[in-house]
Amino acid sequence: MSVITAFNGLFSEAGVVIKRVLDATDYRLITDQEIVADAAKLSGMSEGKIARAFQAKASVFNAFSHEKERAIAWLRLAMAHKLIDQDKLLFSGFVAHLPSVNIDHILKVCLISEMKDRLAVAERTEGYAEKHAAKLIHKDDEDRVMWVKNLKDTDDPWAGSLYDLVVPVGASGVEQSADLIVEQLANAAVQVTDASQAQVADFLLAAKVGTVLAGEGHNVLVSASGTAVTLTINKHVLMLERLERELSEIVSKVDGVESVETHVGKGFHQTDIYRKADFDIPSKVLLVDDEREFVQTLSERLMMRDMGSAVVYDGEAALNLMQEDEPEVMILDLKMPGIDGIEVLRRVKNDYPNIQVIILTGHGSEKDREICMELGAFAYLHKPVDIDVLSETLKAANEKVQSKG
Q: 353: cis peptide before it, omega within 30°?
């Protein structure tokens, strides 16, 4: 049977339309949450880290950690397994854009309404005032724009070229919108064929390769045809032949791959430089220090060693950042205005026990050191610190983080 993927705008009555389709077809609903859970089981990443891939705002550490790209790779594999193993499925949400566009028996649907209709639905169903509803819609649309930009390289998530059927729910009504989708399931163009099943197999192989590459710190576009895999490099590379050779060696070992071809894509000549993630090196280090010149210089020196870091200048900013973008290692000063370093350490180890905290201070006493180590600090260092000593301490802290999974 054909598969349905349904992408939608917030407050476009997608849930009601989808329920009518499910009732009329006996299809099974697959949500973002189910694919996220499957991807987490496959990868060992937390569901929270996987789900953050749907958010427009990338982690401040992502240039080094490649966390979003890794999450997307595992989401693709989780969806590929669903497509291989089952039929009569309706995928609803962000995951609708994960499959290859080349799978013919997927009916690609977009459910969207005009803004006035979306605002009216928000007021009628949730009691939201127009201003609040508009804010929620804007935030959700922002996430969807960036998601589709990352996956399909277009700024318009509602573009007709992305779908077989764009349904204006507000204008058509819920019942007619559902009927349109059910009617299109009979279209010969979306029926399962040997060719379309082979396309799913190609998608599965490409997804497998994608996760293997992501696990090695690489981020390239992957496509497959039979046993042949094509890799497309879309960022500038200083030593292209070396990278191509490394990629080919990795991919050629994947079960089911018999040939590998690499080439550069349209983004290759842009200024963005290809960066391989090195998971043995700390990539999510938060520096917390009110001495701005010192901490900015320290951040630059760590980045020269390929360690990803972000900087905040007081304890309150550090605690606020961790609510939405949790680091793995923190370098923390003790003497800061407002919330001091000892209190930050206490709260961090209470709320985020897996974060490894390295105290780096120029004013701490022996009593301070004892308190910090009792609270769970990983190390206690004094300024000025030898950058090699700090680097080795960071690597040791990172090893402890990684060992806890």
A: no
DSSP assignment letter at 97 = G
Q: How far apart are CA 202 and CA 322, in angstroms?
A: 39
Single-letter amino acid, residue 193: T
DSSP SS3 for 376: coil
Question: Which of the 8 DSSP states describes residue 45?
Answer: -
CA–CA separation, 270 vs 153, rounded Å?
15
CA quadruple 199, 200, 202, 206: dihedral sign: positive
3 state SS of 65: helix
- How many angstroms separate the CA atoms of 16 and 360, rounded? 55
Express each pLDDT in 63-73 by its tens digit.
Answer: 788 899 999 99
Q: What gap in Å lies between CA 107 and CA 190, rounded to an integer?
A: 6
Closest-CA residue to 158 (of 174, 149, 266, 91): 149
Global confidence as pTM: 0.85
Select from 282, 337, 336, 335 the least CA-distant residue to 310: 282
Torsion sign, CA atoms 121, 127, 132, 135: negative
Tokens 């209190």 belong to residue: 343
Whole-angstrom Cα distance, residue 200 to residue 206?
A: 10
User: CA of 111: how far to CAs of 4, 136, 226, 263, 345, in Å?
Assistant: 12, 17, 33, 36, 47
Other beta carbons within 10 Å of 390: 20
> Are β-strands 356-361 and 329-332 bridged in parallel, bridged antiparallel, or unpaired?
parallel
Domain ranges within the chain, ordered by starting residue: 3-190, 216-264, 285-403
- Could you tell me the CATH superfamily of domain 285-403? Response regulator (3.40.50.2300)
CATH of domain 3-190: 3.40.50.300
Same fold across 3-190 and 285-403: yes
Record the tokens describing residue 374, joined without a space.
């009792």
Q: Reduce the secondary structure of 210-230 to three states and give it as a string.
A: HHHHHHCCCCCEEEEECCEEE
Work out the mean pLDDT of the chain and round it to a whole number.
92
- pLDDT, tens digit, 9 for 90 and up, residues 25-53: 999 999 999 999 999 999 999 999 999 99
Distance CA 394, CA 330 (A): 9
Gap between the terminal Cα atoms of the chain = 39
Estimate the crossing angle of helix 366-375 against helix 341-351, to 10 degrees: 10
CB 26 within 8 A of CB 16: no
Strand, helix or coil at 321? helix
